[in-house]
Amino acid sequence: MATTKHTLVALVTDKPGVLNRMASMFRRRGFNIESIAVGHSELPNLSRMTIVVDGTTTSVEQVRKQLDKVVDVVKVSDISGDAIISRELALIKVKATSSSRSEIIEIVDIFRASIVDVASDSVTIEVTGDEEKISSLFNLLRAFGIKEVARTGRIAMVRGEPGPLPMEEKTARAKRQK
Amino acid sequence: MKMTGAQILCESLVREGVEVIFGILGGSVLPLYDTLPQYPQLRHILVRHEQGAAHAADGYARATGKVGVCMATSGPGATNLVTGIANAYLDSVSIVAITGQVARPFIGKDAFQEIDITGITLPITKHNYLVLDAGSLAETVKEAFHLTRSGRPGPVLIDLPRDVQIEQAEFHYPSRVDLPGYKPTLQGHPAQIKKAAKLINEARQPLIIAGRGVIISGAYNELKELAERAQIPVVTTLLGISCFPESHVLSYGMLGMHGMAYANMAVAAADVLITIGMRFDDRATAKVSAFAPHAHIIHIDIDPAEIGKNVRVDVPIVGDVKVVLNALNKLIISTPHIDWIEQLDGWRREHPSIEIRDTEGLLPQFVICKIYEVTRGEAIIVTGVGQHQMWAAQHCCYDRPNSIISSGGLGTMGFGLPAAIGAKVGCPGDMVWLIDGDGSFQMTIQELATIVQDNIAVKIAIIHNSYLGMVRQWQELFYGKRYVATPLSGPDYVKIAEAYGLPGLRVTRKAEVIPAIQQAMDEPGPFLIDFVVEPEENVYPMVPPGAALAEVLEAPKEKAKVLSDSAKLSVSNI
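The joint structure predicted for all components is written out below.
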């Protein structure tokens, strides 16, 4: 069966070892994590993870169910089939001389990216967008000589309501926190 | 009231109804053991190796339906528990393992006897905890017991640093747990149950495959009602044995690699399979792509991740077996499947599967059969892993609910003796017979000291064939009879028994079997019988690895057929 990229969104309790438990499950079931991004969610004590993995739909569904069994995981959804907004942020440090700098700035403007640091021989660009946009910019900048790149990995959200955590659970959880 | 961490742990265990702890102490659990005498209601049984503690807790849990508790020190004590925890994980057994850990300031410093046991047991526990302050200990124990016994049971480990055991904290035992990420589904979806009922009511050749989930859920009556109402034949997995009385007219025994030929043929011919509390283990399904080719499959299980994991399912129902069957039974129309049952009975007559040859020498099957007869099926049978395990599964007629305890998923040799200890401690009024192989027995033989010290009246039958028999059988059938590393010597088991301080007897002839079993039963305490049996007897029927369920070998006369292409191709798939 053909494999495709899947975006999983998980809400997990903010406890030590949770990331380890999640990563361990992917390893155990034979998945390679393409990217993983973790940060606070809108709810206290809950973190939100966006995980991108490559796999067949049935095998990803199996790993999703296994992840759902991890006690610290409150909710995990495969949102690949939904209408989603997904973004990644990248910092790209490019070699820049006084002669090439203006050309770089032009490209950066077209991509609605911004220059966040300028040094004598380089500029650092911050860009946000989907992976395709970042890769396009990256390819254009390659001609100038890339010194360093850092990418956050994808974060994603379903458009409109409801989010991955049903509202009633959210409110119940929020009440308990009070 | 302020208490030490050790006292908080003991108070919490008492509140969870714990009566017995299997364990071995060591440096990192000294404060805990020092506190134990304050709680005489917590009986401690000293085992001789921590693996024995975990298996004993496992046997106790399976026999009683309560939570088994084992305890060990940090480092090697904790790592020795690992096999037992993995065994409980694969067979969904409720145990709580408590390990000592080095004091908090030493964690992460590679201190003496420090090991990351929560890291090690992460993939083999339902959940685990490293407790970093005594104030959170009561809540942790509450959660651990809730997790291990609810939903799909599984082991939970609590790692307790030495200084947390002596730290003072306010004790308050919570009345409920707050686990937003954990809500097992108990009620089956009504629409799915309706769909299942429709399939069953329209089936011409329905078959039930029942697993350990029926036992865990205590759904004996509900299963019986379903089978009887619609006249559906029942086969079980290895761990499902005794969830349905085997003398029942609708019982067709165990399926799988060493299942009854007619049970496997029934699976292959069924048009609707009702699979209940089982997980399609490869030893049960044989070649998955050829499993039940004509059947619509209904799968009832409490664990959503089991649905569709190995076998494609038509009607999944996630829920507690008992609750789901109660709802399902109301929708089932009484249907006599006369032709289908006649067909099965015909297969059973043609392929009796477990006939014992009349031989001069002592056959292992004969011994097991006699143990069953003399004990009149009233014993709890505990087994090790290997040929004797399969013969014990085949040659006793398990009518009493939950009357066999065996290591299924992990197939842990050495499980038998400590598990029998746990079963006997949990059910002192029951007769407990351990049927073990000489290979399996030698892996945890040291626990003989435990049964003597605590006078645990386990009856031990060693099926002694001087081989690692199951592996030898595979070498005979699939590796050109090259018996590499399977011939097995051992001690004189009667002298071993004597040396440990329990009575023992050797049996080499058929005529001695019944009197020996009788003598063992008459003895109030533990007793060991060394049954020296035919060394090269094989377990049949057998589905060769990689073959479909219906491709059953029924030898001995068919032995030559074994090296068929399908078998050869899949030897690597053991």
